[in-house]
Amino acid sequence: MTSKIATQGAPTTLEELKILLQDDNKVKVAVDGVLRGKFMSKDKFLSAASSSGFGFCSVIFGWDIHDTVYSRELLISNKQNGYRDILASIDLATYRRLPWEDNVPFFLVSFLDPDTLEPLCADPRGVIKKASDVASKKYQLTCSAGVEYEYYNFKETAESASEKKFSNLQPLTPGMHGYSLLRTQLNNDYFHGLFNESLKLGIEIEGHHTETGPGVLETALAYTDAVRMADNAILYKYVAKSMGMKFGILPSFMAKPWGNLPGCSGHIHVSLKDLDGINIFSVPELRGGRAGAANDDTRYLSEKGEQFLAGVLEGLPDVMPMLVPTINGYKRLSGGEAFWAPNAVTYGYDSRAASVRIISPPSVPPAATRFEIRVPGADMNPYFALGVTFLLGLRGMEKQLKLSIPPISAYQSNPALRDQVTMLPPSLKAATERMMHPNSVAREVLGNEFVEHFGGTRQHEVKLWNQAVTSWEVERYLELV
């Protein structure tokens, strides 16, 4: 199985692959949204590449990020089928080399049902590929995207953080210093290593700087094809954590590590291009914008752009676990506009207070017209977040949806309208219940099989949270109740 957008120098045939690996004796492959994987002998790898793939234990879809089996049996992996193998299909187009691991060849895989050879519904890469295929086959369009991560960095290791019971961690740098030219020099090798090693791995970076918060960095990944963007985004976390181990630093993509400090976003940018490479959200004639636009905020959006936006807004409350998949992620949103972490169904031209920020002329050229989805935190899975955003937008285009709400500026200027704002689910429990509702938009765009599986994984997360006793509870209740 090969993606449409290949890494430069990636092999397209088995013979090219053999030549490429002629001086290697092992290959590394990675799977799943948290990049599990393994080394394979070159012979085993070549054998798998020449067939449908290789067997990989299905338990990776049956346990959580701490290898705890899910609370209830799920569709892909369960005791009844003995956690049978599923097929891991190597995507040759994802070829890269890991410069910090002896330049070992590296490939990503996608998963197939061993009986039907059809893509597994729960495979993260399958979700973004589904969206890309819908855009390409149904509309002759290509999905383009970008991702921005904010993340705290600590002068800790996995061992020291565990010994401290993940409390009193030492920030990499002190104070609140966004866009600082001084703070980056305190850990120069690490800061530049993140940038340089990413480039070697084929991950182009558009911007890399400090952000507000002790030890916080922000990295914006360069705009590209959406499938490749999702790969780059998941791999950037791998780069950061690998560089962190090298320099004794622990980067964290947790959405809200501290209650009294800003959270960490994982903003995504999306647009669609036609076969000529023209951005279909843009309006060619700039003077005054498009006649018939819904309002001033959308006057430089095409009609298709408005429909895409309407689709995202309509479906947003029903797909929140795809954008905010953790218990902690909803605490980032609890501050709302105060922390530029929107928790309502809102949009607006160049508004960082809105859930969907319209980026269009006059602030950018028409070709750069796009939507920034500001709801996800840095803990999001980019395959899910990007995939479902495009599926919602394409659904809006198919149904020719109209914008049914005014821009966020109307609510801000008229407090009487604020009661009309649709709030997003405030917790993972509420978000999962809404996603799994029989009539949810999530079921329409993702399919029942996926919603039942992924929803089950989120129900497991909620169950573990409900059983946990936190330090806050002990401090508040131990003595005085």
From TrEMBL:
<dbReference type="InterPro" id="IPR014746">
    <property type="entry name" value="Gln_synth/guanido_kin_cat_dom"/>
</dbReference>
<keyword id="KW-0418">Kinase</keyword>
<keyword id="KW-0547">Nucleotide-binding</keyword>
<dbReference type="GO" id="GO:0006576">
    <property type="term" value="P:biogenic amine metabolic process"/>
</dbReference>
<dbReference type="GO" id="GO:0005524">
    <property type="term" value="F:ATP binding"/>
</dbReference>
<feature type="domain" description="GS catalytic">
    <location>
        <begin position="124"/>
        <end position="481"/>
    </location>
</feature>
<dbReference type="Pfam" id="PF00120">
    <property type="entry name" value="Gln-synt_C"/>
</dbReference>
<keyword id="KW-0808">Transferase</keyword>
<dbReference type="InterPro" id="IPR008146">
    <property type="entry name" value="Gln_synth_cat_dom"/>
</dbReference>
<dbReference type="GO" id="GO:0004356">
    <property type="term" value="F:glutamine synthetase activity"/>
</dbReference>
<comment type="similarity">
    <text>Belongs to the glutamine synthetase family.</text>
</comment>
<protein>
    <submittedName>
        <fullName>Glutamine synthetase guanido kinase</fullName>
    </submittedName>
</protein>
<keyword id="KW-0067">ATP-binding</keyword>
<dbReference type="GO" id="GO:0016301">
    <property type="term" value="F:kinase activity"/>
</dbReference>
<keyword id="KW-0436">Ligase</keyword>
